[in-house]
Amino acid sequence: MGDEHKPPINLELGASVKAEFKAEIKAEIPSTSMGRLVDAVTDAIRPFTEARGLKADQIRLQREDVLIEVARRASVRLQIEKIDPQPIPAKTLVPLLEKASLEDPEDDEMIERWAALLAAEARDPGPNRRWFIEILSSLDGWQVKLLDAMGRSSHSREFFRVQNYTRAQVSEGFSSVVDLCAGNDVSKIRKKLGALPGYTMFFNGEDIPNTNEFEFKDIEEASSLLHLDALGLAWVNAASFVGSDERHFVLNAQLSPLGYQFVALFQPEEQR
């Protein structure tokens, strides 16, 4: 019988959640072979884990602790909204729990996002949000906070207007603002760049020893922004221009419509 005929998994978001995660795993491989395989894997990863003071059992317990905290926060969200959790299909639930369990227990920002995603699935398991799982698992705390800030900066309608709906149109708007900056002093440039939506990084040519050798590759935020662009969550544009007497550089990231849909999932409905 195909997976489509199996009943969805019902995740109970409550105090008993720890027991839920201790499911029995069965395999066709003989137990002795399984034991040797586990020993081999443990030996292989030991050099990487022991440097952080982690043993195999600690890794397993750490992943359980992360999931327990994710489930606890999701349960609180649903209780506040007075919503009973709905059964979540295994095709969504299993990868969600797997990816969430890999987060650092101290990364409160990411744990909060996974809890929000789990609550969203339990609230309304109908829509296909599996792509949310893959995207969230590839982000870090700084990126999700930036996306959230960009999502809150404008009303949701702004992200779906014709002039903001495609990369080409956003790039055109960016270029228009940059053209207005040419020939101006730094104070006027900053004011004009302030009209750009999203996240803008301005590099004053007066602070750059050699503008002919300036590049973005060693700027950590620039790499993170390009990552968001590659995921389709933001559109990144960059340019250089001459002000009153120096060459300047600007990097701008704007939330894409897809990015807004991603961010909106983690926001209360009244804030969207």
Give a quick summary of the entry:
By secondary structure, the chain is mainly alpha-helical. It is built from eleven helices and three strands, in the order H-H-H-H-H-H-H-H-H-E-H-E-E-H. A hairpin with a 4-residue loop joins strand 2 and strand 3.
Based on the model shown, name its key terms.
272 residues; mainly alpha; 2 domains; 3-stranded antiparallel β-sheet; 11 helices; 51% helix; disordered N terminus
Total helices: the number is: 11
The total tally of domains equals: 2
Rg (C-alpha, Å): 24 Å
- Oligomer kind: single chain
* Poorly predicted residue ranges: 1-29
Strand order of the largest sheet: 1-3-2
Coarse structural class: mainly alpha
User: Percent helix among the residues?
Assistant: 40-55%
Amount of beta strand: 5-15%
Number of E strands: 3
Separation of the first and last Cα atoms = 42 Å
The general outline is: elongated
Please trace the helix and strand order, writing H or E for each element.
Answer: HHHHHHHHHEHEEH
Q: What is the averaged pLDDT score?
A: 80
Biggest sheet record: 3 strands, antiparallel
